[in-house]
Specification:
- This protein is mainly alpha-helical.
- It is built from 16 helices and 2 strands.
- The chain has one domain: Up-down Bundle (Growth Hormone, Chain: A), CATH 1.20.1250.20.
- The protein has a two-stranded antiparallel sheet with strand order 1-2.
- Strand 1 and strand 2 form a beta hairpin.
């Protein structure tokens, strides 16, 4: 009799263990991008002396990339392969992250929005490829457990993104608060802005180089194709058929509102916390960092809950 671990990651005599490890690492990589970016709404608002409303255009560009590429990514994957989808996603992710260099040179806010959009077009390809690929890496009866296990590593990347944002971006920005920045003349503002942008782009450039390395790893590693060869999908008829299923439609609606609420919580807890702590007499920069610490604590709870729920799926019917 096969042991449980072997049955979870083996199908038709093909082991998916190495592929599972590599693809699961991608879950952490897009978690990093998501949660290093949430605090940037506040950071960009301060750097460019904008309102928080203008700063939220980052999230519009960020999740606009997800929206724009979801269906094209699905069609691309069916035309080629999960591996091709992963490579396309990593390529766009790297290009978007490295575009922060020319965006910084312009000294303008809007090129960063383009960089974020391209980056998240890549994340859309990654998620659209990785999720079904994980599902296919073994018997169908263990697919939900396998996917939940892989997704449990997403918050770990998110935690790293939050940590980097707090310790390498927020902590190193110029300590002048919003009111003090408003009093700067044009030359002083440009000097402070350029210095802060140099701090802000550094983690994105580094993650861009990491993504290039991951791209090369996946390109050269042989990935099993067993899972993707067994289910040919005619995209449009399949889309029509699944939207005729009531539970599927309701699930899509629930997911829409859940993701919206989650994004707003992770994004605006920093703004809310900063205002609350500043009103209590705390300096603005310290208030931002403390707010991010609360954000990290919430993500730690989220991360542990994912692993606990994955374990419980052994005994509970999802």
């Amino acid at each position: 009799m096969k042991n449980t671990k072997q049955s979870i990651l083996t199908k038709d005599g093909i082991s998916f263990l190495l592929a599972f490890i590599i693809v699961t690492s991608c879950f952490a990589l897009w978690g990093f991008a998501n949660d290093i970016t949430n605090p940037m709404v506040k950071a960009f608002s301060k750097i460019f002396r904008m309102s928080v409303t203008d700063g939220t255009l980052i999230q519009v560009a960020f999740y606009g990339g997800y929206f724009a590429m979801a269906f094209p990514a699905a069609i691309f994957i069916r035309r080629f392969s999960y591996k091709s989808g992963l490579l396309m996603g990593l390529g766009l992710y790297a290009v978007g992250a490295l575009m922060f260099i020319p965006a910084k040179m312009t000294g303008n806010y809007y090129p960063f929005l383009i960089a974020y959009f391209i980056l998240t077009c890549g994340l859309s390809f990654l998620e659209t490829s990785a999720n079904p690929y994980i599902l296919s890496m073994g018997p169908e009866e263990s697919a939900t457990r396998r996917l939940n296990l892989a997704q449990s590593f997403n918050p770990m990347g998110s935690l790293l993104g939050m940590f980097v944002a707090m310790n390498f971006i927020q902590a190193n920005l110029n300590p002048m608060d919003t009111a003090e920045r408003a009093l700067l003349n044009d030359a002083e503002f440009a000097a402070v802005r350029d210095s802060d942008l140099s701090v802000l782009i550094a983690p994105y450039v580094i993650i861009g180089l990491v993504i290039v390395a991951m791209f090369l790893l996946i390109f050269f590693v042989r990935m099993p194709k067993n899972g993707e060869q067994s289910h040919a999908i005619n995209f449009i008829p399949t889309l029509k058929r699944i939207f005729c299923i009531k539970h599927y439609r309701e699930g899509v609606i629930a997911q829409f509102f859940y993701v919206g609420v989650q994004i707003m919580c992770w994004t605006f807890i920093i703004q809310y916390g900063t205002r609350t702590f500043v009103a209590g007499g705390m300096e603005e920069k310290a208030a931002e960092i403390l707010s991010q610490k609360y954000n990290i604590a919430a993500m730690i709870l989220f991360c542990f809950s994912r692993f606990i729920c994955t374990f419980l799926l052994r005994y509970l019917n999802p």
